[in-house]
Amino acid sequence: MGDETAPRVTSASCGRLEAGERTFKDAKLFPGGAREWDWNETGTRHEPGVGPADVEELLEHGATTVVPGTGFYGKLRVRGETLDALKERGVAARALPTEEAVAAYNELREKGPMGALIHSTC
């Protein structure tokens, strides 16, 4: 479990996200690092949306707050069961459209172990 600060998002535009000196289409951001978020790993689709398995890696890295981004137009859903599972584990969560998710993530990453799933398109 890491206790380093999660990387800052320096740019977010449709189809492109820059964080921690790297460029992504969709990203998993967590204390101490970031990587491409490959939806195929957990079978994520816009509907039903982000599932508990999608956020597990963030928690393994020590995130105590998680911001799932829902895309620039809010097309990506976040399952109620995902938010419930986070709440049960004492993890604060806020699902927000990409621009708001990036702003919240960048602000909160300075205050404690932070994780985010950022979808850079729809």
TrEMBL record:
Transmembrane segments: none annotated. It is found in: Cytoplasm. GO terms for cellular component: cytoplasm. It comes from the Bacteria. Gene3D superfamilies: MTH938-like. Keywords: Cytoplasm. InterPro entries: MTH938-like_sf (IPR036748), NDUFAF3/AAMDC (IPR007523). Its main location: cytoplasm. It holds the Pfam family DUF498. This is Uncharacterized protein. It comes from Rubrobacter tropicus. The lineage of its organism: Bacteria, Bacillati, Actinomycetota, Rubrobacteria, Rubrobacterales.
